[in-house]
Design brief:
The chain is an alpha/beta fold. The protein is built from 19 helices and 19 strands. It has 2 domains: 12-207, YjeF N-terminal domain (Rossmann fold); 219-496, UDP-N-acetylmuramoyl-L-alanine:D-glutamate ligase (3-Layer(aba) Sandwich). The chain is 43% helix and 15% strand. The chain is elongated and about 85 Å long.
Length: 497
């Protein structure tokens, strides 16, 4: 697990280290400069660097870095774009030091070509549009040749939402100090950050409360996240899944979600679908039990709900009167955990009271479906996705995976998981059906709702990354994601042997 912080959390950590731990701010600045130089030595040609400094402490880090590079025998130039009269105390001290060392400080940028351009203009805390001389400076730097590096976060990127404040420095590498900032993980900010390198500088943050924790998983975490398989097990050991999926002509959604559940480890899957899908599903997935309906059948549904350990509702279900009655009945009477996706979410959006007091529900909306559930526009949601997600799970006691380029998972027990696996090759019809199946397959093996949802999103993204490696960015199909499940999980098995 890797912790991610907002700008505010980072500033609190800085203050705690300085005020409670007694580490002077100038010491932290020196450590920051050393950490950046270490990263640069691994990544860049430092023969002729340009460091572009603002008047805050991020600029102070840049000035300290210039001195270290100078002492090392490089030929750094400093372009100071901040206002010295408004500089922070630490920035003023560093400015005086570089003057004492005789390092050139420019007020304008000439025609000199630099091997690397280092952005130390704003850092965290920016909350306004970049205008005037700052905007001109950033746009000028973006147009120049040479590798580009940002210290902590690209200037012009919001440290919390990833939004661009009018313009932003386009880095090839961002050296994140102590923690990666949320703004460099979320889009569009992550597209400006380039390769992200996290460097420890001695920040001792007070323990972040669970309700405030933001985190992601890394590939090596998968082994510890997955449920264990026992040598003396049988199909009943891994749960009975009921998948209510597939309206007339939508057998594909039922097939994809059911096969994904099986491929992730579910013991037994029963598909409840429209009668017209029976033949094709029996041919495509003979491992599944196929039960069908021609209309709403309360008695049959009760029998199925009593049988199932986990229920998945929605992929390809449609918006018919029968579908609406099925979803309503499930929300009122199903006692097993339910994963609701696709059309199940669209039906729920018309009757949100069905979600009240339901604690065994996972929702997996994409942005359009989330807009229906919350009554916010997609644009509003994207502008501050985490805040809206947290508000939603405070109102409804569910686990919610809000799907986007950076899918987030949250529930009312606090904290937000931000997924960093996956890629644009997965933007194909059926990908969401596969995710619903993956989460279902994990949940039925005894995982908690929250952990099954997080792990499912994480694994689904890993499968997308594997599939892209095999087939490229354009040709990945939803079925390829299912094929990739075996390959990714086999890698974990190999590690365990």
């Amino acid at each position: 697990m890797k912790i991610i912080v907002t700008g505010e959390q980072m500033r609190e950590a800085d203050a705690y280290t300085i005020n409670q731990m007694g580490v002077p701010s100038l010491v932290l600045m020196e450590r920051a400069a050393l950490a950046v130089m270490e990263a640069l030595e691994e990544e860049m040609n430092l023969k002729r660097p340009l460091i572009v400094c603002g008047s805050g402490n991020n600029g102070g880090d840049g000035l300290a870095l210039a001195r270290l590079l100078h002492v090392k025998g490089c030929q750094p130039d400093i372009w100071y774009v901040g206002n010295p009269e408004h500089a922070s105390k630490e920035n003023k001290i560093q400015y005086q030091i570089v003057e004492n060392y005789g390092i050139p400080i420019r007020n304008t940028l000439g025609e000199t070509e630099y091997s690397v351009i280092i952005d130390a203009i704003f850092g965290t805390g920016l909350s306004r549009e970049v205008e005037g001389a700052y905007r001109e400076a950033i746009e000028t730097l973006n147009a120049r040749k040479g590798k580009k590096v940002s210290i902590d976060i690209p200037s012009g990127v919001s440290d919390t939402t990833g939004r661009i404040w009018g313009t932003a420095f386009h880095a090839d590498v961002t050296v994140c100090l102590a923690y990666e900032k949320l703004g460099t993980v979320l889009y569009p900010g992550t597209g400006y950050a380039g390769k992200r390198i996290v460097k420890e500088i001695g920040i001792q943050a007070k323990k972040i409360a669970e309700e405030d924790k933001i985190y992601t998983y890394e590939k090596q975490d998968l082994r510890t996240l997955l449920p264990k398989r026992k040598p003396d097990s049988h199909k009943g050991s891994y749960g009975k899944v009921l998948m209510i999926t597939g309206s007339k002509g939508m057998a594909g959604a039922a097939y994809l979600s059911a096969k994904a559940a099986y491929s992730t480890g579910a013991g037994l899957v029963q598909i409840y679908t429209d009668e017209t899908n029976r033949m094709i599903l029996q041919q495509l997935l003979p491992e599944a039990i196929v039960t069908t309906y021609t209309g709403f059948d309360k008695i049959k549904l009760k029998e199925l709900f009593d049988w199932a350990d986990v229920v998945s509702i929605g992929p390809g279900l449609g918006r018919s009167e029968t579908a609406e009655k099925i979803v309503t009945y499930a929300m009122q009477y199903a006692k097993s955990p339910c994963i609701i996706d696709g059309d199940g979410l669209n039906i729920l959006s018309e009757e949100m009271t069905l979600l009240e007091h339901k604690k065994n529900i996972i929702l997996t909306p994409h942005m359009k479906e989330m807009a229906r559930l919350t009554q916010y526009s997609i644009e509003e949601l994207k502008a501050d996705a985490m805040r809206y997600l947290q508000e939603f799970v405070e109102d409804y006691p569910v686990v919610c995976a809000m799907k986007d380029a950076r899918t987030m998972v949250a529930s009312d027990d606090g904290g937000v998981y931000v997924n960093t696996t996956g890629n644009s090759a997965m933007a194909k019809a059926g990908s969401g059906d596969v995710l619903a199946g993956v989460i279902t397959g994990l949940l039925t093996q005894g995982m908690s709702l929250r952990k099954a949802c997080e792990t499912g999103v994480f694994l689904h993204g890993l499968c997308g990354d594997y599939a892209r490696e095999q087939k490229g960015s354009y040709s990945v199909l939803a079925s390829d994601l299912i094929d990739a499940i075996g390959a990714v999980l086999r890698g974990v098995d190999d590690e365990n042997l």
